Amino acid sequence: MPLVWNDSLLTGINIIDNQHKELFKRINELLDSAGQSKERVKELTGFLQNYIINHFGTEERLMAKTNYPEYLAHKDSHDKYSQEFKGLKDSIDREGVNISLTVKMNNLLIDWWINHINKVDKKMAEFIRDKI
Ligand SMILES: [Fe+2]
Ligand SMILES: [Fe+2]
Questions:
Q1: In angstroms, rounded to a whole number, what is the distance separating the alpha carbons of residues 18 and 7?
Q2: How many A from CA of 131 to the centre of ligand 1?
Q3: Which pLDDT tens digit goes with each residue over 20-42?
Q4: Distance 104 CA to ligand 2 centre (A)
């Protein structure tokens, strides 16, 4: 199952929306990587990990700059995700994309992003939109 982009996920902040779209693309490449070489899969998980760290950093800088009142809770959600993603990345790097990781991959690579963007990022965007 792919992670499907849909314009209802737009936050209205270009830099964030562009990063989300790129993330979806890269996540789908990973979801599609069953049967590919270990090196290729490692390349995808490594890129994704860096991109996620960079993306969270972009949002956190914007929240700090605009004194967003829910900064800490939002950052906490990013930090927890980063930890969980690292666990998933280690498993994928070890075992490749396989059926035993399906539930974890669906949770962390699909459901989490849709939920986080819809609930947490959109709320942030509403506050910071006219302050940046
Ligand atoms: Fe985001
Ligand atoms: Fe976020």
A1: 12
A2: 18
A3: 999 999 999 999 998 899 999 99
A4: 20
